[in-house]
Please model this.
Amino acid sequence: MAEAIVEVRNLSFSYPDNTKALKDIGFKVEKGQIVAVLGANGAGKTTLCHHLSGVIPNIYQGTTEGEVLVAGMNVPDHPVYELAQKISFVTQDPEGQLINPDVLMEVAFGPENLGVPRDEIMRRAAWALEAVGLKGLESRAPSELSGGQKQRLVLAAGLSMEPELLVLDEPTSQLDPIGTAEVLDSLVHLKQEYGMTTILTTHASEEVLRIADRSIVLSKGEMVAEGTPREVFGKVKLLDSVGVQVPQMAMLGYRLAPQRPIPMTVDEGRKLVTEILEHKQVRKLATTQTANAPSREPVLECLDLTYVYPGFPPVTALKGVNLKIRRGEMVAIIGQNGSGKTTLVKQFLKLLRPARGQVLLNGKDIQSMTTGQLATSIGLALQNPDEQLFTISCQREVEFGLQNLKLPEDQIKSRVDEALAFVGLQEQWDTFPFRLSFGDRRSLTVAAVIAMRPEVIVMDEPTTAQDYLGRHRIARLGKKLNESGHTVIMITHDMNLVTQYADRTIVMANGEILLDGPTSKVFSEQETLKRAFIKPPPVAILDKELESKGVPQGILTVDDMVSVLEGT
Amino acid sequence: MILVLASFAVSFFALDFVLLGLWILFLIVWWFIGGIEIKRLAIILKILVGTYLFFVILQGFTYRFGNTVIFQLGTLMVGNRNYAAYTLEGFLFGTLVFMRVLAVVFTLPILTMTTPMTKLAATLGKLKVPYQFTMIFVTGIRFVPLVFQTWTGVIQAQKLRGRDIDKMPFWKKAGVYTSVLTPLLLYLLKLSQTLQLALECRAFGSPVTRSYVEEAKLHTADYIAITAVIIITGILVGLKVMGYSSTPHLFV
Model:
């Protein structure tokens, strides 16, 4: 067995309010491995990272039992500045971790604090920036970098301390698919070229399969599974019960043939399905009728919509967009950050004014209406729930908009009760919004929007920084609203949600609409999707590969694939 | 930094229309030389319009040496002074105080936009300014855009629920700003927590003498600029000290 660089023995931890966050955790990590820690929100992943990096007990306190040894050091015995020379810790928010005015200074900051001579710092900075692919950007300001570049810069800033271990707490949860791939590719490069050891927490199960040597699953502070990703993701039932997303191929294999080895990759999935098809014939894909069939009549229409962000130089974020959203549709808008998705939906409510073009609401130009007036017809839940909660209780939060509409008290009360019940927060009506979990805060912002009874509800990246269960909960909420008669537009990076919940998908790239149509049709255009850097879910790729075997095309979910293959 | 200190010196010790006017002109010339877009000047003036109105209204009615009444809104006698009377001297003094503000405010873009923060931090280090102080300054500048972004986000979220703060009269704004400040302060707390982790995990505050990648070196242009600032400041403050006043009746 190779040398263990991390050894955690019987680690338990309670916060000062007696919340037990970790219970008897124990594992070893070998030098040069990438270890993924999986688990739902609240499982103890961040607390574990804080122990590995020495943030607990140096910065945050509580009661710890057990031992954490990293690179031969007993972590609690050392101050953070000493540990920082062996362990680099990165959190999920790159913005808050970038302190300096330019890239070079950011990378030099750590060694400067340790009094490392200038020439040595320059050597380390050049190495670290090269390792994460940021060479040549030394004089750039962090604000000029993309999300993925920012997170890689944080990584480089840690690398310049020449650590032996990287501890990354959900480093990709706030990034788009390109940014996520950039960061994860950097980790693989660091492992292959420099033998770097990495422990990262994540919700991205499909990515874990691609990069991790080992996985650990936490649930309510306990370690419930450990092994290679193949071993861990083979425990489908267990993972499902603890709120960890099972990769699509594993889920498909488990449902089709649980007695056989579970497939992990599309190749393995194809082999399994091909074997099944040798003995059986495929069924036709049953077409599902949506409860709320959309009308042909557009509720929202964009005509030649162009928007330019002022700046030096100005950035054209929308380039002559033409679009019709029909009443009763459930639409997903997808595309990388900067493709124009949020800019587009902000035009619907005049939060941004177009340089050219028009937005029509029910056939009427919105030009003469105020944002407040438009908000009674179009409800927009913005990306960050914490910017949208202003009051001292959930009830007041939902009342806020209704009082601005000057509705009578009895109507306000009934709408508040109804909206809170709709999102399942009726019991927490008097709770301070910031005491709710992140997922519940997100639901509360949706409640505040739906209380205003808009025809159209727009949710801008409602699933960012949420775990698997949270993402599905908010998407189901959108579906429920759609089924109750609302037109719903959802911006997201989660292709599994898009394929599962949206009837229509719009793909944006560089301020233009690249694809627009029924979700199954859009995901069959895999070459065009590549241009928008969108990777279809594995089931969609498998379906395309099985076309010659007679498998119906347009299958996007495990449920549908199982329905055409199971029991045939 | 020398320019900022000089600006403070002139605005406090050379309070006079002509002297402050010359200093502001000197700063505008510096803007040109430094390549700062002049339209930023208009933006600053637009932002400060409220401040100017506040000064001239307040001083117009309350300036103790005011005796040339322009108009009066009635009678509000306190001692020998009618506080309902608006005076020319008050108006001029309010304008002068505003010029003092301008003299300082116009300096800041020169500091922040023509000097890279890295150089500034290195220079402060060389001047033996404690690095903790420099960090406060550097992180402050770094996080201003994030705070503005959050502020805009909160204002937009309120608009979406029918409250448009931007279009409210200012006396109503004051009452509703709490609802904007609550999420903003909570964001800042969260940001400061992340910042603390980022700083400590990169050995900030370790008990060793810090090194600097950026080397603080002065070039000929720097020596010329420093000399010019010292000479002009000396002349302006000197003239005031020697009794020069373009408006002797204002008693300032």
Observations:
- Chain B has a mean pLDDT of 84.
